[in-house]
């Protein structure tokens, strides 16, 4: 009789080229799973060295019979130690600590990445893994992934009692040995050495015992030509691995919980998870929004913040109720408090320095003295970090942390980097070039933040240039907001039409380009844009119809004709997400050729367009709407001012002007309807920087003027977006790309409505957008026209931000756009500068059966990823634009002193924030800036009044009008040049 | 956690170290359950199936109301094929029991039953008889349907049920997902669980080494342009599976001759097919 068992045993001898991998993993829900995977071991995995002819003969082909080209050079670069050239085999730690090094263009060529290392890296850090995959795809870096775990000779089984790390190290060594013996068989005269690159001391020792070539990362780098410079880029943390003999008593911070402990805690409601945000006014105060509490949880003090950095996903524990507090009413800046800290001497310090303690103490006193029963917010402490959101930070070296001797010598020392972003703590970096880095904008990254270190530890990546130079500041800004500003790669440019600027709409209507297009060339179409606009997305027309109605058309550049889904250009555009407008620079989403020429609806030439055509009656009610791809010829490109002049000029009676007047008339009606439906008119202090035309130096700042024609264009764009949103949602209820603006939670307005009630006796209602719009309209001060705008600016800051989403992810009522008071909304009208619009174009084209739906636009998972990315990019682009304006306002004010009116928009116990509408800037005025010595003060938190006495007697309250003297000054904390305000007098 | 299928293009190696056109390791055995009319055990990689045949029996109406799916052979003039699948709770990574009325299982049962009904020469039994095929999944690691069909074929041979040829099946996938719209995607043969979860795939059953397609199941989205390549690859895989099953049967025959269960002369006259 045969049994199952016997049959398996008898087969076991044939499995020498077969193995299985067994591992255990635990799922999110805490279950333990045992996974068994097969591993097929083989001998046809090539070494990919151009020296080796044997491997070339056996190299595998893909289904099309194409063999991957061999990567590693036959004449690799040599160093002092390896004169015949060398291939590098980094281990996982080397990549984890020094990925920036591997991306250098001066060194690190011919690198073999082992599968073992790739897998380990993927487990440890997905972003690094992705960067590495990117490197392996670049042709000139010559990175080769060798699947050592599948090659019979290099496969290593884990021995009993061997840790997984030891096993992996052994696998790396085995692969290095194999490579060396394999290459030796090529009988090449100049035989390159295959070198293991590691920082693990144990691993090096074992390698030496086995006579495997190995070197430490640091030794290797210092042997390179420009080693000095590269040395700084090695992460700090690994140094420590060698001398970790600190006692537990030295730990400054409480330990983080283990992941499973946090998971269980979050699950049973004991702990809460959320994103950690630092207050822009007080670096020792953070807040976390969690679903369980209506108000954000406060995290106060270094101890409770426990090494969380702005943006991290953290888990917090709520503190007992008697420790709940109000949010701080005090400005605490890291720079001022920790000014004299020594970057090198970390030992023997308490976690919370005396100064910090005093700063916080006053807080506590205040909360205990006043009866703030209802207003106390729950406080919490961070017990662990789920996911660090560390990125690269731009900043400058704190001058005071650099020792005098370092300015000449090459001694390595620790210095503090002060990030531009005030929410990020100081970062300690070790460098040999401290002297050179002073006064430069530099880019760094955080490596770790251990319990025994007060500040996070990072390393230097590169220098952007002198502080306050235009190039350095612009690049700093782009990096800080993660804007992709590199030139378009060749693969992207290859996707452009061959004809270049000579491309024209084909003359013959039989051309495939004309398929399904309507010929709208006879229509009198024009475009209205800001002065000097080159990427013209939209053009309009209106004409009366015989039945007394009007035909109105919005024509949008047909970008989807040129950017086909899933090619390199589309991919690049989807990553960039949006065009970023800085004061002096535009970072395009699409290559110039398309953005400013072929797609741009320039006047007097024929262009492809995607048209939305409505029939509307005289009341601006839509009778019907249709969409079509078309060919148009714009008659004129107006600026807003020109258009306004032309409309106002009664002597102009031609058809084009009449059409524009019709548009204006209809747009006013549309606007009225929107306002009646409860659309909000929000405000932000927008200013425009005027530049000298030749040197492009800023000379003046103007507030933006709004003309009727601005609102004309805006109304029709909104109308087009809404019509398109309707259409694509009908056709694709699951995948349509839409834009929503959530209703803000009521608690967001608590502070503002309380302030209004106490200071002005006004009521702010926010149960619906209509109520809010009406009560905002009522917030006026007859003496002060700007008061209303001020309230609108403050209300805008309480709002949620609008976001793109995929229709299937939300229920229909959630589609609402709160600000525009529209049921459904999308972006359709600016495909040249926004990726979302491009997607909407493709979906609309499919909805009107112009072309079949491309799978990439149909896959919901993919679209969700796109939405997520463009939401982030959109926000960053806005922030970058604002930061750029702020920088140029600072530059324009350089060397000038001006007295301007301003308004108090936020008040603290030791200072207040003033907004100056003329320049659109806001700045903090601290008590200690008022007079010397710092005046005594009493702060009435209930009534938002700050009274000073002693050296200067003043009484400042919220919403008050003040006169400030603005001069320019370099902010030592951030290295930014900005406006510095001094209080001249208080009005009223 | 090992790498995922996106690394295929780095070295043309799949997640388990195979090339695009390689089958997994297979093991097969006939007559594993001597008390049954026919039985077989088949492994394709870590997918392990035991199949037991009972019948042809006279149709028992009370039995046929169970969850088995049935299909008549020879246009209703022959025996009925009834297939029931049981997945052991320990067959998957997560230990779980499956109900008898699992719709996915029923669909697989129907596919197998109608596929086999087209292959089995049922007219020799008469319309009132039923061949019960019961399939036990002991371990599951991708290509389940294909493996079930192959195991059933093997067990039917053991039971001595006349068939036109082996009914063999195999899966084929494509190296990039539907949404990637990558024109250079390679077809892949014989997918395991991880690949099935990440990539589009189809199951193709052919009649022996011919290219006659008996069944094809594709539940994932795949570009039409890639389908042809996937089908051709799967058909090639089916040939490989057929050769393997045939080898198992011949080895078993040899063994029976050695053990004296059958006389050598009989074998030569009836099994001398090559």
TrEMBL record, chain A:
SMART domains noted in UniProt: PINc, RNB
PIN domain sequence ranges: 86-205
The entry's keywords: Exonuclease, Exosome, Hydrolase, Nuclease, Nucleus, RNA-binding, rRNA processing
Subcellular location: Nucleus
Pfam families with a match to the protein in the record: OB_Dis3 (PF17849), PIN_4 (PF13638), RNB (PF00773), Rrp44_CSD1 (PF17216), Rrp44_S1 (PF17215)
InterPro entries in alphabetical order: Dis3_CSD2, NA-bd_OB-fold, PIN-like_dom_sf, PIN_dom, RNase_II/R, RNase_II/R_CS, RNR_Ribonuclease, Rrp44_CSD1
SUPFAM superfamilies: Nucleic acid-binding proteins, PIN domain-like
PANTHER family: EXOSOME COMPLEX EXONUCLEASE RRP44, RIBONUCLEASE
Name by which UniProt lists this protein: RNB domain-containing protein
TrEMBL record, chain B:
Domain Exoribonuclease phosphorolytic: 22-162, 182-236
Coiled-coil features, chain-numbered ranges: none
InterPro entries per UniProt: ExoRNase_PH_dom1, ExoRNase_PH_dom2, ExoRNase_PH_dom2_sf, PNPase/RNase_PH_dom_sf, Ribosomal_Su5_D2-typ_SF, RNase_PH
SUPFAM superfamilies membership: Ribonuclease PH domain 2-like, Ribosomal protein S5 domain 2-like
Alphabetized Pfam families for the sequence: RNase_PH, RNase_PH_C
Family: Belongs to the RNase PH family.
Name of the protein described by the UniProt record: Uncharacterized protein
Source species: Apiospora rasikravindrae
